[in-house]
Design goal:
binds adenosine-5'-diphosphate; four-stranded mixed β-sheet; UDP-N-acetylmuramoyl-L-alanine:D-glutamate ligase
Length: 305
């Protein structure tokens, strides 16, 4: 099978994660324990997720001219993602400064850095979008950039998958360009004012939508009348960070391969579950064989509505 071409337009951050027995209060300094530095940002994560899941993946975004940028690019490329068009802009890369306490509570400050300067898509960037089977975007870069990419995709017949995270209201023009919306409950609420009790309301805004429900699986619906609840794959969840990114990346791949969307969502649920049973975000994004193995267990294969 030809690998589908998935272009991800989005953010890249270096996540700086310090573990501490207790989170510091304002003005306080505490002595922590471990520290890790991992690539993150929904754009980079979803590009890695899609590529590991089987896509010919391209990441379009911006990193800074600092050492984090160099490391970020190398780590994203190490998963096989094409980073040849990744912009380097003068100044700081995006960073997320994270503290995690012994109970798993965290605080996060995201300083967008280069991500905020990712505007005005160039002709080569637009051309990559036009050549793709599927465009995947999120909302951690300027909205205008997402709009430009979606307009180019629509004009070229490239399918547009929008993971509308972080939650915010969206302009009607962008919703009008979306072929498949992927949201969790908070994001659904921000867009349509509804949650899991009436996900079908999302279809007033977009022709196809997925609502992810964590350990409760996902819902998929479309304007042709599909209204399917897909149960989660039962796993021992360790850390669900990145599960949504694993889900969206895998979904784009399966749809790009021409799979039926209910089946594609089921496969994406296997990807999310495979990610949630391991610690970490980008490091635990599953490879295709891991997704296939979990999917083949058949759990989660029974849409009930
Ligand atoms: P987000 O992190 O964006 O809120 P979710 O937590 O809904 O996303 O996770 C995305 C998908 O990953 C879910 O739809 C589900 O299929 C899978 N998933 C997440 N957490 C679990 C879990 N604890 N057990 C099984 N599957 C999970």
């Amino acid at each position: 099978m030809n690998r589908p071409r998935v272009v991800v337009v989005g953010s890249a951050n270096m996540d700086l994660v310090a573990m501490t027995p207790v989170l510091p209060a304002a003005g306080e300094t505490v002595l922590g324990t471990d520290f890790v530095m991992v690539p993150g940002g929904k754009g980079a994560n979803q590009a890695i997720a899609a590529t590991r899941a089987g896509a010919s993946g391209v990441f379009l975004g911006a990193i800074g001219s600092d050492s984090f940028g160099v490391t970020l690019k190398a780590r994203i490329a190490a998963s096989g993602v094409d980073t040849g068009q990744l912009r380097v802009v003068y100044g700081a890369s995006g960073v997320a400064v994270v503290t995690v306490d012994a109970a798993g509570e965290n605080t996060v400050v995201v300083a967008p850095g280069a991500n905020a300067a990712f505007t005005g898509l160039t002709e080569p960037e637009l051309s990559a979008v036009r050549r793709a089977d599927v465009l995947v975007a999120q909302l951690e870069i300027p909205l205008e950039t997402v709009l430009e990419a979606a307009r180019a995709a629509r004009a070229a017949g490239t399918r547009v998958v929008l993971n509308a995270a972080p939650a915010r209201e969206l302009p009607a023009e962008l919703l009008g360009l979306v072929d498949l919306l992927v949201v969790n409950e908070g994001e659904a609420l921000a867009i349509s004012g509804v949650g899991r009790e009436d996900p079908g309301a999302l279809l007033a805004a977009v022709p196809r939508a997925v609502l992810t429900l964590g350990a409760a699986g996902a819902w998929y619906g479309d304007r042709d009348g599909t209204d399917a609840r897909i149960p989660a794959f039962p796993i021992d969840a360790v850390d669900s960070t990145g599960a949504g990114d694993a889900f969206t990346g895998a979904l784009a791949v399966a749809w790009g391969e021409g799979r039926d969307l209910v089946d594609a969502v089921r496969w994406a649920c296997a990807a999310g579950a495979a990610c949630a049973r391991q610690v970490g975000a980008s490091a635990s994004l599953p490879r295709r064989d891991e997704i296939d193995t979990l999917y083949a267990t058949g759990a989660g294969s029974d849409p009930t509505a």
